[in-house]
Structure prediction request, 537 residues.
Amino acid sequence: MLLSDHDLRQIDEMYLKSLGSEDLIGVSIRMLNDLKEARDRLNQNPGNSSRPPSSREPWVVAQIKEEGEGEELEVEESEEDIALEKVDLEGVSSAEDKAEDKVAEVSVAEEKKDPQKKGSASGEGRKPGKQKGASGCGRTQKLPVTNEVIHRAHECAACGRELGEEAEFIARTGHYVIDIELGSETEPGIRVINTKHIYGDTICSCGHATRTQPHRCQKESEWDVELTEWHIVGPLLMALICCLALRMKLSRPRIRELLSEWIGLYLSVGTINQCIHEAGRAVAPVEDQLIEEVIKSDLLHVDETSWKEKGKPFWLWVFCTATVVLYVIGFRSKETIENLLGDAFMGWLMSDGYQVYRRYKNRLRCWAHLLRKARGLYESLDKEAQPFGEKTLEVLNTLMEAIYQARQGPGENLVDKYRKLLEQFRLLCETYQNAKHEKTRALAREFLNDWEAIFLVLLYPHLPLTNNEAEQALRHWVILRKLCYGTRTKQGSKAFTLLASVIDTCRKRNISPWQYLSKTISLRRQGQDALPIPSAL
Prediction:
C-alpha cells in the first residue's frame, strides 16, 4: 500500500480542494492504486487464493451447502473450524474482559490512594517511555552522543513531490545506535560511537506530512529474532560479537566481560545472544548462493561430525569446494545429503566410507582413513590381522608413489601398469572378508565395497587422495563444540551454520568476513537484499 493510516488521516475534502491539478492527479492515482489493491484483498477467497476453507463466513458456508457446491467433506471441515474459531474467540474475549476489569480495579484503587494519578490511564500527564518504579529494567549506561542523523522523507507520500532539505521537519521519535569505528593505518584502534537517529514528519508544500520510521523487516517462520533498524547494537559491533563468539570461541558472558573491561561498553548476555541470531538471519539468503555453487562445483569434499542440539544427538555436515564452505546441522542419513545435492551434482565427491555417499558415481575415497586402519592392523597383536595390514600398507604406499610421479611427469596409464598388483590384492581382500578378527574382516569388505571409488584416482592422478580439506574445516568447530557442548535451539543451530559458512567462505576468498557481515546486516535491516559474497580477490 502506498498510503499509510497516518497519511489517510490527513487527506480530507478540504485538503483535496486545496491541491492544484497536478498534485490532485498524483494523489488520486495513489489512492486509486491503493483502492484496487484493497478490493483485490477483499475479494480473496479459498477458491482464488491460499486462504483455507475455514476462512469463509458462516453464511457463505451455509449457502454453499444449500446449493450443493463443493464437496461435503470440505463443508463439514469448514463448519468444525468455524466452531473451533468461535470457541477460541469467546475464550480470548473472556480473558481480555477479565484483564480490562482487573486494570480498571487497580486504576480506581490507585486514584483513591493518590488523586494526582487520576488520568494516567488515558496518558494525560504521563511522560513518554519507561515510568519510574515500573517493573523491568532499562539501560543504566549513558554514553555521550557522537553523531546525530535526521531521517527525512525524500518524497511526499500524497502528491509524490520531491522533498529537499528546505522542507519543514518535525521530530516525532528517535533511538540510539551504539557501534564501533575502526582506526586507520596511521592511527589503529577501536572507537565506540553512539549515534542518535531522529525520525518524524516532513512537511510538503501541498500541506501533507510524510512520516519516517525505523524499518522493521517482516517476520519469518524460521526466526523468532527481529531484524530491524530499531536496535541498540550497530552492524560493525554486531560483526565483532560474531567474531568473538565463533572465531575466538568465547561464551556470551566472556564476550560481555571483554566488551566491558576493554572498550568500556556494557551489553547484557541476552542482547549479545540476540545479536548473533540476528546476524544469522541477516545472511540467511546467502545460503542459496552457497548451495548453488556447491552443486556446480567440479570437486566437493564432504565430511560429518557429531553435534548436539539441546542435548539431542545431531551431526554437523561440511561441504567444501575450492571457494565455498557450507555447513549444515541435521541427521546422519541419506536424506540430509540428498536434500542438499539431489541428482543435480555431477562433479567429483571426496568422502569417507559412509555408505550414503555410494549413490554418487564419481566418488573418491579418502586414503588417509584406509592407511590408518591398515597401520592399526599391522601393529595389532592378532596374528591374522598383521599380514593383511602389512600387505595393505605395501600396496597403498606403492600406488601413492606412482601417483606422485605421474603428477610430476607426462602421465601414464597406472591401471594397466599395476593391474596384476590390484588383482592379487583383490584376491587377498576376498580371502580376509570372512576373517575371525573383526577389524580385519571390516577393512577387507570396505575395500571390496568401495573398490572403484578407492582406485579411481589411478585413472585421474590429478585428483586428491585425502579428504583433509573437509576435515580441516571441521577441526575449528569441533574445538568449539567441546567448549560450548553444541547449540540449544533450532534457531541457534541455524544461525551457527549460516555464520560459520559465511565466515569460512570469505576466508577462502581472502575477503574480510566482518566487513562483509557488517554491510549485509546494514542492508538487511533496511529491507534490502543481502549482498552476494564476492569472488576471491
Summary: The chain has a mean pLDDT of 85.
